[in-house]
């Protein structure tokens, strides 16, 4: 494998990542934010033409993508055994023979995290003990976020007590749609406080926010309130992660970092299910935020089926043949 900085894998225990302390909210500045949809779409279209990765370089980027996946199961029929099998996959996301052929067996490759509902946190924590892979819990009335505030805060506290190192919360979309930015800020501040040492990943549900301008404003409010990550979607909306929305969010991250010096991560979720799409997101992050953002501490994919396709692409790189999907089970 090529020794480019894109494939360097760092330890990614959540406790070692930078925290965003947040800053006071500037309501007046928010009103001046506008996003041009046509310009965003042109920028996205230009990225595929400006950068292309092939052969061993593509394989290296796909290995990097694996390290940034939040391997996820959020089904009503989840069981502890299913979660334990998923955790085993997170600990060994790529078959040993493929790792040997790629020359990466020394890297200790794992996924970025395992993401589950609260009831499955204890099983995941136990299964991942000693691996360095953090457990993320979806919280605050996921996916709608319409439970009473006291219930949502208690849900966060219980998941942290059960061992979750990351909490994926959902915002109240009504605050964005009515322009009540102070209420949104106060809500996320309360969620951040309830998280304690756990990292706060704020889901904006961008497909329900009405415009890219609202996405940009909500992104900045979340970061001002102390979000450690901003995330596109729950994966359960009609429209989930898209590249124009992601461009809007990563530029908000860049602006926030330039003004405050604080680092915030980005997580696209929903609709990122194949290697080609994953490469497009990696290129977007590299171009807009730089290679230093291509680590699990600063970038994640919210995905369940993505890993299987990446494995198939890497096996094709090694053998010249595509394998059946059942050779790469998730659990």
Describe this structure in words.
The protein has 331 residues and is an alpha/beta fold. It has a single domain (33-326), classed as Aldolase class I (TIM Barrel, Alpha-Beta Barrel). The protein has 13 helices and eight strands. It has helices at residues 27-30, 37-50, 55-67, 80-91, 96-102, 121-127, 149-161, 173-177, 181-195, 212-224, 243-260, 275-288, 306-319; strands at 69-72, 113-116, 135-138, 166-170, 199-203, 229-231, 265-267, 301-303. Strand 2 (113-116), helix 6 (121-127) and strand 3 form a beta-alpha-beta unit. The longest helix has 18 residues, at 243-260. The chain is globular, with a radius of gyration of 19 Å.
Task: Throw out a few tags for this protein.
331 residues; alpha/beta; TIM Barrel; eight-stranded parallel beta sheet; 9% strand; globular; disordered N terminus
Itemize the secondary structure elements and their pairings.
Layout: H1 27-30, H2 37-50, H3 55-67, E1 69-72, H4 80-91, H5 96-102, E2 113-116, H6 121-127, E3 135-138, H7 149-161, E4 166-170, H8 173-177, H9 181-195, E5 199-203, H10 212-224, E6 229-231, H11 243-260, E7 265-267, H12 275-288, E8 301-303, H13 306-319
Parallel strand pairs: 1-2, 1-8, 2-3, 3-4, 4-5, 5-6, 6-7
Helix pairs in contact: 2-11, 3-12, 3-13, 4-6, 7-9, 9-10, 10-11, 11-12
